[in-house]
Amino acid sequence: MYFIDPHIHMAARTTDDFLAMAKMGCVAVGEPAFWMGYDRSGTNSFYDYFRQLTEWEPKRAANYGIQHHCWMGINAKEAEDVGFAREVIASIPEFLERPTVLGIGEIGLHKCTRNEVTTLLELIELGMKTDEQLLFHTPHLEDKYLGTRMILDILRADSRIDRTRVCIDHCEEHTIRQVLDEGYWAGITLYPTTKATPERATDMVEIYGSERILVNSSADWGPSDPFAVPAFMYEMRRHGHPASLIRQVVYDNPLKFFNQSRNFQFTPPA
Ligand SMILES: [Zn+2]
Predict the structure, then answer these.
(1) C-alpha 153 to ligand 1 mean position (Å)
(2) What pLDDT, on the 0 to 100 scale, is given for residue 259?
(3) Distance CA 216, CA 138 (A)
(4) How remote is the CA of residue 7 from the centroid of ligand 1, in Å?
(5) Protein fold of 3-258
(6) Measured in angstroms, how far is the CA atom of residue 217 from the centroid of ligand 1?
């Protein structure tokens, strides 16, 4: 069965990972801009990173029949310096016109500070100007509930937001219900240490259904698993779920969400 990993940081992964993912049935990925594990020293570092995501990674993926899409943004971890973030944000618009860009992401909150909120509002403003989809990162562990609540409050206060074109990612059991109830897409991240596991994601699909749910690996440079989506597919099978339901979550849903991006193009595998 084919699958799409809608949130994975391939810039931090090897070409061997692309090959192994392709062998398991991966046909497309979505790569949000994120924190590379260290703070960048200047705007040019972001500029080159955005070029990497829009020029080099699509070529690397295409060698294995994987269609690579990405999101442009500045992660909350580097959003504290508002002046610097503003410079980075000014460099984003030209990339939004590139053919593989899905929208603004991943953006959001980390420590939920006032400066992070200022930067976040400016990123949302940019997204609204050019009709982008939005992908939100929610904070880790103890900050998750507060951060998710704050993001939902910010979005609720903005009447321009089309909730069907927004994904709130890294949902867990204590945040997914409100995200779905308020009409957003909910991302569930499968991580070996924090976030969710294939078992917990399967439970969440059983409780909340499969509509507007995206399951991803968010695999990056840290302890993470680029084969987490196939592990979820196996867990769903083990629970006796039909192929049609598994396919909806790992293939149809990401396509449906990505399809709402103004640049999105996808060639289904033969
Ligand atoms: Zn991420």
Answers:
(1) 22
(2) 97
(3) 14
(4) 6
(5) TIM Barrel (3.20.20)
(6) 9
